Amino acid sequence: MTRELFREDSYLKCCEAIVTAVEDGAFCVDQTVFYPLGGGQPGDTGTLHRSNGDTLSIIDCYRHRESNNHLHLCEEGVILPEVGETVTLKLNWERRHRLMRMHSCMHMLCVAVPAPVTGGSIRDGSGRLDFDLPSPPDKEVIQATLNRLVIEDHPMSLMWITDEEMAAQQELVRTMSVTPPMGTGRVRLVKFGDTDLQPCGGTHVSSTAEIGPVRVLSIKKKGKQNRRITVEFA
Ligand SMILES: [Zn+2]
């Protein structure tokens, strides 16, 4: 199981790690700053630095279902590091920070639209959530609410509760299609001031002002009473 350094500190940009496995153009390490694809957030990209001076591009990161190891995917044909080797992992921080800002913006979208969430995903520069809403919401009102929440600068904090406490507080789960990350004995709650509190395994900025100005790109009908709201940086 790879130790996830970004869980406690999403601002870590690099770390040292020991290579634990190499297979099919990917490698695993004992610990990492790379977020693996999941919860609607893409896997991180960046570079691996070997002690011999070689640098490899890491083009994606995802979690192996059974082992819980994070596979860091490299470009085809490169010489991968060796098992037992100590390497340095560096994030493409500019991209990750944009993903953190947009991910945090999705929490604010949950505040701006008080309806059940049925799905969502984040890209570099934009993000979308699907809401179970019978009538179309007002685009201008949502955009104004989002930007107000950004300006109000709500601080982010993390709280950990047990699986049992989580099971007793199902009202905290906003995304109907995503079960909270349970099974390890504890669940991480992400809190933005007094505006939003929900279990989430993604990476977030330290306060909402860091999201910056945003605009609602579109509101589309997807299915019977499903509304897809897409937001981008203004
Ligand atoms: Zn989140």
List keywords for this structure.
234 residues, single chain, 4-stranded antiparallel sheet, 3 helices, alpha+beta
Task: List strands and helices in order, with pairings.
Layout lengths: L2 E2 L9 E10 L2 E4 L1 E2 L13 E4 L5 E9 L6 E5 L11 E6 L1 H20 L4 E6 L3 E7 L6 H13 L4 E7 H5 L18 E7 L3 E4 L14 E8 L4 E8 L1
Parallel strand pairs: 1-4
Antiparallel strand pairs: 2-3, 2-8, 3-7, 5-6, 5-8, 6-7, 9-10, 10-15, 11-12, 12-13, 14-15
Strand content: 35-45%
Q: What would CATH call the class of the largest domain? A: Alpha Beta
Mean pLDDT: 92
Judged by helices, strands and strand pairing, the structural class is: alpha+beta
List the total number of helices.
3
The major pleated sheet works out as: 6 strands, antiparallel, barrel
Element string (H = helix, E = strand): EEEEEEEEHEEHEHEEEE
CATH superfamily of the largest domain: Threonyl-trna Synthetase, Chain A, domain 2
pLDDT below 50 for ≥5 consecutive residues: which ranges?
A: none
Distance between the termini: 39 Å
What is the 3D form?
Answer: globular
Domains (count): 2
Helix content bin: 10-25%
Structure summary, number of beta strands: 15
The set of bound ligands, ions and cofactors reads: zinc ion
**CATH architectural label of the largest domain:** 2-Layer Sandwich
Task: Give Rg in angstroms.
Answer: 19 Å
Name the strands of the widest sheet in spatial order. 2-3-7-6-5-8
Q: Might you state the CATH topology name of the largest domain?
A: Threonyl-tRNA Synthetase, Chain A, domain 2
